[in-house]
Write a structure and sequence with these properties.
- The chain has a domain of 107 residues.
- The chain is mainly alpha-helical.
- It has a two-stranded antiparallel ribbon with strand order 1-2. Strands 3-4 form a two-stranded antiparallel ribbon.
- The chain is rod-shaped and about 160 Å long.
- The termini are far apart.
- It is found in: Mitochondrion inner membrane.
Amino acid sequence: MGGGGSTRRVTFEADENENITVVKGVRLSDSLIDRMKEPSSPGRQQRGSGAVNDEELKKRIAEELALERARRDSEAQKRRLKQEQTYVRDEFGKLLERERLSSNEHLTRAILRERAATEEERQKAQRFARQLEEKDRELKKHDAYYKEQLARLEERVNHFF
């Protein structure tokens, strides 16, 4: 950038008021034109009424254009980097959101499964409790029946003796 020179040919000329005019569509800022008019070294060659050396002027214009191009390229790279950072940040945010939703979904499913299992266990416990109560009633019924039978047998035995 700038060190190798430019392959673009720029044609320029000075008008009667020593203003620089660019012919081939390249615009030069007023500050650049003023800098080109200023003598850069005391041993500078000047023609006639203070005109600037064409070769030196071409060289300065090429350097200025190269610097301007480098500045624009740098700004473009900064913009691209900022856009890429924004894109990466947005994509990362989307990924985190998807992961959060996925983990919430998994957690919700796990909670629902656990609730269903708990409800099933509660129902099973109630069923077993009813069965146990039924067995207990049946055992008490059998106990009463056998006590009654035992009392009858004891009464018969006592009757014979």
